[in-house]
Amino acid sequence: MTTLLWQGKYLEVRLDGTWEFVRRVGAMGAAVILATTDAGEIVLVEQLRRALGRHTIELPAGLIGDDGDFDPAAAAARELAEETGFVAADWVNLGDFATSPGMSAEMFTLFRARGLTRTGPGGGVDGEDIIVHVVPLAGVAEWLDAARARGCVIDSRLLVALALV
Amino acid sequence: MTTLLWQGKYLEVRLDGTWEFVRRVGAMGAAVILATTDAGEIVLVEQLRRALGRHTIELPAGLIGDDGDFDPAAAAARELAEETGFVAADWVNLGDFATSPGMSAEMFTLFRARGLTRTGPGGGVDGEDIIVHVVPLAGVAEWLDAARARGCVIDSRLLVALALV
Is B143 an 8 Å CB contact of chain A? Predict the structure, then answer.
């Protein structure tokens, strides 16, 4: 049993006991895409994120259902094409994850995309200003260090590309 | 320039242009711990998360500064001990990450902890009811599948333990 504390246009805050947490209005999920090329590169996106006031490096991603289509796989294919210009022949659903369960109800579905062909420039839609980076996996840790050094924030989903254990 | 839309006890919602986002009151960060044993196991925690209404599987973690000490490394050591009962001889700061930059200002610092010794049962403090799991890394993907099958949600930070690329 949760109580609505505040509702905006995109986000709402709820209370369960003494726990405050946020969720998207309509409880929309997200699709996140781990896209790798046949040449062993990973497709990353860079954009200004208002929540941080800084540029971030992220996996391509987008909301599920904001266009009326609630199929996660369709959202993943659409977002990969819009943000990066790549289309993928091979898709695998890698499961659902929670982004920050201590404060947020947000979940995302992770997709692996392979068999990539670039059919457009990417960059996003509706005023999104997305820079596409195609980075060799063998050097991704060093590439992310360099991105941090020029002021970028690294999204936690990039942990999937770092061999830390 | 951001505008405060709502403030609760723990969370606040801000607006930048048309972008709504959440942050913790006081902008506290978090420490997240990738703790592995000499035997090649990873230390995981399971707890009920009110934001999801379900049990989650996560890396040990905790807020930085909620006890008045704003040193991330100190928070990491404290949380690892409180939640899991392990102390670590070797600590490495693996950098800062954003959990969900499309909707949240939340950041965390990831620490790698090795040279583990178990000195207590863990379980958390102040009514936290945390179950500790010590899982062989070689079988962690299958273990997480089984956790999902019994109804658990997997935290996105577990991506660090999955060899998906």
Answer: no
- pLDDT by residue (tens digit) across A81-99? 999 999 999 999 999 999 9
pLDDT of residue A30: 96
Q: Which residues of B touch A18 (CB under 8 A)?
A: 9
Residue range A46-74, pLDDT digits in tens: 999 999 999 999 999 999 988 888 999 99
Measure the CA–CA gap between A103 and A97, rounded to whole angstroms. Answer: 14
Q: What is the mean pLDDT of residues A147-158?
A: 98
Instruction: Using 70 as the pLDDT threshold, list the residues of chain B that sit under it.
Output: none
Window B:31-50, CB contacts with A under 8 Å: 34, 36, 42, 49-50
Among chain B residues, CA nearest to A23: B51
Give this prediction's pTM: 0.96
How distant is the Cα of B90 from the closest Cα of chain A, in angstroms?
14
Task: Flag whether the ipTM exceeds 0.90.
Answer: yes
- Spell out which residues of chain A touch residue B48, defining contact as CB-CB under 8 Å: none
Instruction: Calculate how close chain A gets to B19, using CA atoms only, in Å.
Output: 7
DSSP of chain B: --EEEEE-SSEEEEEETTEEEEEETT---EEEEEEB-TTSEEEEEEEEETTTTEEEEE--EEESSTTS---HHHHHHHHHHHHH-EEEEEEEEEEEEES-TTTB--EEEEEEEEEEEE-S----STT--PEEEEEEGGGHHHHHHHHHHTTPEEBGGGGGG----
